[in-house]
Prior knowledge:
Elements: E1 13-16, H1 18-24, H2 29-36, H3 40-47, H4 55-65, H5 69-72, E2 73-76
Antiparallel strand pairs: 1-2
InterPro entries: Cro/C1-type_HTH, Lambda_DNA-bd_dom_sf
Organism: Lentilactobacillus kisonensis DSM 19906 = JCM 15041
GO molecular function, one term: DNA binding
Amino acid sequence: MGQMSKNKFDDDQISNKVYEFRVLSHLSQKGLADAVGVSKQTILVMEKGHYSPSLKLAFRIANYFNVPITDIFGYKEGDDSDGH
């Protein structure tokens, strides 16, 4: 079989403010990683926007900082959106 076809969600992105919340809390990447049960590398790639967390992990991070999930994570549609 050939390469999978691109679907309309490929350009969509989950934006996040993990870095901002972590720095304001004077927390290292390892400290946050340990607190939410993932590797330091996971936090690193999430902060750089190269990894979108699972919903479960997103809630764990929001709960750790005691804020609504939407304060840290947002959704942005790709270029194929119709502007609505």
